[in-house]
Amino acid sequence: MFGAGSRAHARDGMTLIGEEAYFHGTLAAKGSLRVEGAFEGDITDASVVEIGAKGRVSGNVAAETVVVAGEIVGNVAASRSLELLAGARLRGDVRTAVLRVDEGACFDGSCAMDAARDAAEALP
Questions:
Q1: How many domains are there within the chain?
Q2: What is the pTM of this model?
């Protein structure tokens, strides 16, 4: 679904929130997380976060890499990269080292890249 931009190797041990699922609270995902359902709260400590086309996140997301096909209403801190695929919607502020916005994606907020690049370089 995410094509070549998706990290297929990160799917090993990935936590999935399915289309019919609703999550409310804070989730510290130490590995990879894929949201296909509704998520209300903050996501922290993840290596890769993927928001599927039907996925909706209302809260802040902090991860190394974030790939969005659905919707996020909240701030995103992606120490390595943030990718907004066609049809994605992001309403919030962004801190990332690399930002990719496909045609047809919607981004309403501000973006800071220098601080995130410094943080990414400091990672082991």
A1: 1
A2: 0.83
Query: Is 111 contained in some domain?
Result: yes
Residue 1 lies in a domain: no
Instruction: Indicate the SS3 state at residue 121.
Output: helix
φ, ψ (nearest 5 deg) of residue 54: -100, 0
User: Over the range 88-121, which residues count as b (16 or more CB within 10 Å of their CB) and which as e?
Assistant: bbbebebbbbebebeeebebeeeeeeeebbeebe
Range of the domain at 51: 11-118
Query: Tell me, what's the pLDDT at 29?
Result: 86
At 21 the three-state DSSP class reads coil
Q: Tens digit of pLDDT for each residue in 36-77?
A: 999 999 999 999 999 999 999 999 999 999 999 999 999 999
Please tell me whether residue 120 adopts helix, strand or coil conformation.
helix
Distance CA 68, CA 61 (A): 11
Query: Considering the domain boundaries, does residue 6 fall inside one?
Result: no
Number of H helices, E strands in the chain: 1, 15
How far apart are alpha carbons 82 and 105 in whole angstroms? 12
